[in-house]
Q: What sequence folds into this?
């Protein structure tokens, strides 16, 4: 009997309509876990290099995580994967919500789709019944309406992941939507679903997950819960969080942060996340130089000071909150539902916009009109379009307009001037509909800049086609972040590294409580930079293989993930053994790109993001991070050739990847 994993996968051939299940041996789970680890193994083995990402030969997969269904906290992430049409690299994206347990309830760890249907279809799994049904009546519907229709048709307990009109139009920045606003958004994988005429996956399973040692997991969860809800300094947590969003104190906050005198530790961040969610970091991030401003050429406290950023952060966001929202098995509940009325663009109910969205359409564009940002978030969720990629593309358009690369005739009369929130909204509407200039922007900033040209490629902020997220690697501790942007198999991802391996190597629990482990702040400036980068990078593959949320590791209470995983499966792996598995997963995903003929050493951020030339003012002024050396050190530590990025033959032997060695060393 399998414990933790379901032991089976489902294969759906959309061309023929056949649906087959495949049993997976335990040895593969022990080598690749689940999530995108197992997914990468099967896609690498069964897909030829060079396929068209929007062609029928691109395998598209949806996977759950190993810990989902165990009762362990933060175990509600699910993943989509395949060759990215946005970057032509390995592509994956993950999301929270409640779809991950729905996958396992079908009796499968994931579903793989091949081929292309002649007409729009959706996959329905109802108990033991599995079939493809006509989705012609759903084609053209937004994601909210699609979910409402399928819920009404099949039952409220069915969970749906679908594409919106963005995916149907094969917009290269489209993602996959569930829970009316949770998106597996990056890598453009919604376009892959659209290319296959696959509108949705609707799941109503009835299978339970077998847990090897349920008693141990229950005790571990209870102990963690008690620590997680205990604050040593609640008043200090509250005051410091409020200070980060108070204009009169913003200068002092910035100064103290620069001098490493402000104690923003994990407990304080946990308080912020429980109180406001990720919007609680908007003003602080803009003030300290974490947030890009004015398409990465501005400075927060100069171009978008505290009196403006406070209006899109903290209480200014939660005042619109109608209900707290937490993903499956999450004690943090950082999400929320919001509604706005008595404004030009009301919204009856939608998900609270996250930091990335508010920064992208607020700080980046100098817009402090929060109700309009909420409306934009709702539009993009319904269309199934990545808010990060869309915001970066819009910021490029504003700078292109500023430099007369595009004109008012191109924009159908829209004046793309910084801070013009109505113009932002109207431009986003064009993108979601693929109309007017929107048809050139819906495929992302690289495509748009190449179309309009005139030197605008220089301010297209992407890495190998994927738009940069809202975290600036030009900070003094930003080397690891920048290396992650360039070296991750899915380039341009801010959640590709997580610097907390030392937490699991510590033996004294009291040393863990005040550690600050921010997923976007990987401090790797020590002599063993390569090893530190390797650990931080591989740890994230472990997190994704287990189906966990990265925010779990940013709260000053260390989740006992190794104990959870062993109790779930009956295995007895050590942390180092799990990290070895993660390194294997990372190398497999990396090797997918090598086999596609990509040299990762040539993947680089734009000069502006690399600090060339350096900023002359602000928290990031005059910083010169050596990303090239950081990447060489990282590849060396990973066991890759530092000129080509190709894993060395001995590395593949060490990681027990003979199938990869055969492909790369023919």
A:
């Amino acid at each position: 009997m399998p414990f933790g994993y379901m032991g089976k996968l489902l294969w759906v051939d959309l061309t023929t309509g056949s649906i087959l299940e495949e049993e997976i041996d335990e040895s593969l789970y022990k080598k690749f876990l689940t999530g995108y680890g197992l997914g990468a193994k099967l896609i690498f083995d069964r897909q030829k290099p060079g396929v068209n990402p929007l062609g029928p030969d691109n395998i598209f997969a949806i996977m759950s995580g190993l810990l989902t269904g165990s009762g362990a906290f933060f175990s509600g992430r699910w993943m989509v994967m395949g060759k990215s049409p946005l970057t032509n690299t390995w592509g994956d994206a993950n999301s929270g919500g409640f779809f991950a347990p729905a996958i396992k309830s079908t009796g499968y760890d994931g579903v793989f789709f091949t081929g292309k249907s002649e007409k729009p279809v959706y996959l329905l799994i109802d108990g033991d019944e599995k079939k493809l049904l006509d989705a012609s009546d759903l084609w053209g519907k937004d994601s909210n309406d699609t979910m409402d229709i399928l819920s009404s048709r099949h039952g409220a307990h069915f969970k749906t992941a679908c594409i919106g009109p963005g995916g149907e139009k094969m917009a290269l920045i489209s993602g996959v939507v569930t829970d009316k606003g949770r998106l597996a958004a990056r890598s453009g994988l919604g376009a892959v679903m659209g290319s296959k005429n696959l509108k949705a996956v609707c799941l109503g399973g009835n299978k339970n997950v077998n847990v090897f040692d349920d008693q141990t997991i229950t005790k571990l969860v209870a102990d963690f819960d008690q620590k997680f809800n205990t604050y040593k300094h609640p008043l200090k947590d509250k005051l410091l969080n409020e200070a980060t969003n108070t204009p009169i104190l913003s200068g002092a906050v910035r100064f103290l942060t620069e001098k490493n005198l402000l104690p923003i530790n994990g407990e304080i961040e946990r308080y912020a996340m429980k109180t406001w969610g990720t919007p609680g970091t908007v003003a602080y991030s803009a003030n300290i130089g974490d947030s890009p401003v004015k398409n990465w050429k501005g400075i927060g406290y100069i171009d978008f000071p505290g009196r403006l950023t406070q209006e899109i952060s903290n209480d200014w966001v939660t005042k619109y909150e109608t209900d707290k929202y937490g993903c499956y098995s999450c004690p943090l509940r950082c999400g929320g539902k919001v509604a706005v009325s008595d404004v030009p663009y009301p919204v009856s109910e939608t998900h609270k916009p996250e930091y990335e969205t508010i920064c992208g359409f607020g700080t980046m564009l100098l817009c402090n009109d929060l109700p309009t940002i909420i409306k934009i978030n709702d539009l993009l969720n319904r269309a199934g379009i990545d808010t990060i990629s869309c915001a970066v593309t819009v910021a490029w358009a504003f700078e292109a307009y500023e430099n007369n690369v595009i004109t008012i005739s191109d924009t159908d009369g829209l004046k793309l001037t910084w801070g013009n929130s109505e113009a932002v909204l109207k431009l986003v509407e064009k993108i979601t509909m693929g109309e007017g200039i929107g048809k050139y922007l819906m495929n992302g900033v690289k495509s748009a800049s190449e179309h309009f040209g005139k030197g605008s490629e220089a301010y297209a902020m992407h890495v190998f086609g994927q738009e940069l997220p809202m975290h600036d690697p030009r900070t003094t501790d930003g080397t690891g972040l920048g290396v992650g942007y360039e070296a991750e198999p899915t380039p341009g991802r801010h959640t590709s590294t997580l610097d907390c391996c030392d937490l699991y190597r510590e033996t004294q629990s009291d040393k863990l409580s005040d550690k600050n482990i921010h997923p976007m702040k990987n401090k790797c400036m020590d002599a063993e930079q390569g090893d530190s980068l390797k650990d931080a990078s591989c740890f994230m593959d472990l997190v994704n293989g287990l189906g966990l949320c990265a925010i779990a590791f940013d709260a000053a209470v260390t989740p006992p993930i190794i104990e959870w995983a062993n109790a779930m499966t009956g295995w007895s792996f050590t942390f180092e053994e799990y990290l070895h598995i993660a390194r294997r997963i990372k190398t497999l995903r990396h090797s997918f790109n090598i086999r596609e003929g990509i040299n990762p050493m040539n993947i680089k951020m734009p000069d502006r993001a690399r600090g060339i030339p350096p900023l002359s003012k602000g928290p990031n002024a005059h910083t010169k991070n050596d990303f090239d050396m950081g990447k060489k050190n990282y590849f060396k530590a990973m066991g890759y050739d530092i000129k080509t990025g190709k894993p060395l033959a001995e590395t593949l032997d060490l990681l027990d990847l003979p199938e990869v060695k055969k492909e790369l060393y023919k």
User: Anything to note?
Assistant: The longest strand covers residues 198-204.
